[in-house]
Amino acid sequence: MDTQQAPVRQPPLSLQVEQILIERIRSGHYPPDAQLPAEVDLAEEFNVSRATVRSALNTLATLGLIVRRHGAGTFVTSNRASPIL
Question: Does the predicted TM-score (pTM) go above 0.70?
Fold first, then answer.
């Protein structure tokens, strides 16, 4: 009988970043209409690639939590009707 357990897997990095950003939005750290830090700054803060941050931000945009404006930045939406929050 083998008593070894399968290793516990961490969620993907992009999901971890998503969860942190959702919590920051929910807590008011990033209030409605606030601009989020640039992708490169978030990548440095979380010690992940820009592609990982971009993936997380794309998901948040799909959920309606943020809006991405080309040349202007990424902003928290003022519509807080998302079921996640």
Answer: yes
